[in-house]
Design a protein that fits this description.
Distance between the termini: 36 Å
Largest sheet: 8 strands, antiparallel
Number of helices: 0
CATH superfamily: Jelly Rolls
Number of strands: 8
Number of domains: 1
CATH topology: Jelly Rolls
Oligomer: single chain
């Protein structure tokens, strides 16, 4: 399966200062994983999911990430952050990233603090 970024509509999510494009979801895959392109301009609210492990790959830009109770770290293009299921986290900055969920993201998975 080939997915072209420009063929996927943008969805605004103003409560988290971002715009997403759902590249692979439960309707296009087998439910084993999902992949979403995200452009963040601000701060994503602190959250966790008990269902999936998440991998964040920073495509471009700079920002910060807080994982669990660890100190905030700077993130830059080329960085990868792995968030184990059940771990609370937050992020922010001016960046574009890919987030991959295994198993696939299902609406309602995110629990906000």
């Amino acid at each position: 399966m080939l997915v072209r970024l420009d063929d996927v509509p943008e969805i605004a999510e103003p409560s988290n200062d971002l715009v997403i494009r759902q590249l692979v979801d439960t309707t296009s895959g087998e439910g084993n994983l999902s992949a979403t392109w995200v452009r963040l301009a601000g701060r994503h609210r602190r959250l966790r999911t008990d269902r999936s492990t998440r991998l964040y790959y920073v495509v471009e830009g700079d920002g910060w990430f807080v994982l669990g109770e660890e100190p905030e770290v700077a993130i830059h293009a080329g960085d990868v952050v792995l968030v184990p299921r059940g771990t609370t986290y937050a992020l922010g900055g001016e960046l574009t990233y890919l987030v991959v969920n295994g198993p696939a993201f299902v609406p309602g998975d995110d629990e906000y603090d």
